[in-house]
Amino acid sequence: MKSSVLSPVNTDRVIEMAWEDRTPFDAIKAQFGLGEQQVIELMRRELKSTSFRRWRARVQGRATKHTHLSAVADARFHSTRQRAISFNKVRT
Fold this sequence. Notes:
Blueprint: H1 8-19, H2 25-32, H3 36-46, H4 49-59, H5 82-86
Helix pairs in contact: 1-3
């Protein structure tokens, strides 16, 4: 799925997932088909320039955003907002 085909709701969800510290880029790719570079381009296009720079500084080299750098064996993260999007039960 190309970023130009994403609905506004899915675009917002990708942005939320990109801001979440524990959601790796691989999870975004699995759910929306966007690689890391495509997420960066989407964030650059959708965010204000100062917000983009802040986000970029935050995720650059962050181990939890890059599965191959993470020491966590199971890097899945379940956001409290996930139920509204995928109708999954909220984990407690």
